Each structure stands twice: as structure tokens, then as C-alpha cells.
Amino acid sequence: MDGMKWVPGGRFQMGSDRFYADEAPVRSATVDGFWMDETPVTNAQFAAFVSATGHVTLAERAPDPKDYPGLLPQFAKPGSMVFTPPDHPVNLRGPPVWWSFVLGADWRHPVGAQSSIEGLERHPAVHVAFADALAFADWAGKSLPSEAEWEYAARGGLDGLDYAWGDEFEPGGVSMAKIWRGAFPWRNEAPVGLERTAPVRSYPPNPFGLYDLIGNVWEWTRDDYQLPGVASGPSCCSAEKGLNSLSLDPAGLGDPIARKVSKGGSHLCAPDYCQRYRPAARWAHPVDSTTTHLGFRCVLRDRA
């Protein structure tokens, strides 16, 4: 299957009891075999889809004020959430001041109307809402993965380990995924041109031959986000491993917008802030969420 790898079915230990509350408890899960895209969908692939279908993404359409009571008129225009780092240290337990709604930001213009994806053809497509990812998957004759499928694939047969490559964060001092380097969110030590996403396949594949399941961009799954039995708590993330701090609980927000599970962390996950660069990590993304660090990949469940 061109551009895909076969993931043999099996039983595995899903989740983690060692990091954040919404990953617990560890439980047994079983998935059937399936094909999975080797990488997140790239800008080049997404451009081919848009060219073939004329699809207009959510970020390229002005929101209807009727759907967002209280929306200020100046924001009733096409745009998306863009990581806009401060130039100084900030309180990591306070509001996420490093995000801004930017008019004109979308998959073609990742940081605003004056930007482009020229030279970023091999980077993951971002500013893709859940419906946009579904539309691409339908066009490609594929589906979005379930949370269990995604996590099983990310583990690559290394069951029960903290990271997709083992229990050591950087084995032998080698970086295994595109995450934040420096002091989050203000000091970015990534090489010039790689301050945000990286080209796919920049890091080693896992044992199933899959790339970039950890870091680079969060990836949509088809599953609704649920957190049974856990009360609402602060959002991502504790700076201390093992605190098992509470994650976002949409049930306590009074927000009618559905949320889906996204997996894998992103280039904004950092050891001193958000340790979600692991297979068990999960995040509740609203289905109308579009950001500079959220993408997707597809699966195919028919082996023929």
C-alpha cells in the first residue's frame, strides 16, 4: 500500500498511570490489523486534495456569530490560532498567553495572511479542523484512526513503555522526536527554519515503520474525548513528571462544542511544561479547533 505501513493487530496495555490523570488507568485493549499512513498528511498531500475537490477548510471561512454567542465582530472573519511566543519568561501555570487568533491564518498561510507553505511542502498540514480531516480521509478512501489504533501503532510493539522508543527520553543523548528545545515558550533553540514544524521523516521510524507519531503535530483521532470519574482541573501541563495532574475535562466546561481525542504531542511539548510526547498522552481538541500544531494521518482497515 503506497505510503502506508501494515500494523498487525494485537493486545496491548493502553494508557499510563505515571503522568496525567486522563491517561489512567492502564487497561488492556485489542485492535485488529490495519494500514496507517507512514507520516502525518503533508502540505503537498493536502494541496492535492484541495485541488481535486475544491474543499474550503474551516479556518478559511468566517465563523457564523449565531454559532458563537458573544463573538466580537472583529473576530467574525476567517482565521486560526497561531503560536505567538513572548520574548520573555512567563508563568507556565497561568493563561496560555503564547496563543493568538490571527486573521488570515489557515493551512496555506500557517502564521498569517502574509505567510505561505512555499518550502514547507514536506511539513505536516496544520490549521485542519476535524471535519477537514474527515473530508480528506473520505476523498482518499481512508478513515481517521481510533484512539486505541493510534496508540497501538505509536507503541510499535514496545508495550508498556513510557516513550514510543523505550523508557529513556533521549537514548544515548539522541533526540527521537520534534519537540520544544529551550525554555518554553520564549526561548526556542531549534535550528533556523525549524522553529515550528519539521519535515516528515526527520526522525527515526518506530518498529512498525511509522514516522512522527510523537511530536511535530498533534493528530486527530475519530474518538470522542471522555474522562469518566475525574473532576474538572487545570489544563496542560505540570512541569513535574509523576504528579499525575488533572487534564482538561470538557464535561465541566459547560461548552457544547464536541471534543475529539488528539494524540502524540507536538513541537510545543517541552520537558519543563508539557510532557505529552508519549503514546499514552491525549488531549481534548474541540472539533472546530484549528491551530499551528494540529494535523492528522489516516488509516485503512481493509488489507486487500
Describe this entry's structure for a reader.
- The chain is an alpha+beta fold.
- The protein has a single domain (1-304), classed as paralog of FGE (formylglycine-generating enzyme), CATH 3.90.1580.
- 10% of the residues lie in helices and 17% in strands.
- The chain has helices at residues 43-53, 130-140, 147-155, and strands at residues 4-7, 10-14, 27-31, 34-37, 79-83, 99-103, 182-183, 187-188, 218-224, 259-263, 282-286, 294-295, 299-300.
- The chain has a four-stranded mixed β-sheet. The protein has a three-stranded antiparallel β-sheet with strand order 1-4-13, with no helix packed on it.
**Main beta sheet, described?**
4 strands, mixed
Please count the beta strands (DSSP E, at least 2 residues each): 13
CATH architecture: Alpha-Beta Complex
What is the CATH fold-level name?
paralog of FGE (formylglycine-generating enzyme)
Class based on secondary structure composition and strand pairing: alpha+beta
Chart the SSEs and their pairings.
Blueprint: E1 4-7, E2 10-14, E3 27-31, E4 34-37, H1 43-53, E5 79-83, E6 99-103, H2 130-140, H3 147-155, E7 182-183, E8 187-188, E9 218-224, E10 259-263, E11 282-286, E12 294-295, E13 299-300
Parallel strand pairs: 9-12
Antiparallel strand pairs: 1-4, 2-3, 4-13, 5-6, 7-8, 9-10, 10-11
In short:
The protein has 304 residues and is α+β, with helices and mostly antiparallel strands.
Q: Key features?
A:
304 residues; alpha+beta; paralog of FGE (formylglycine-generating enzyme); four-stranded mixed beta sheet; three-stranded antiparallel beta sheet; 3 helices
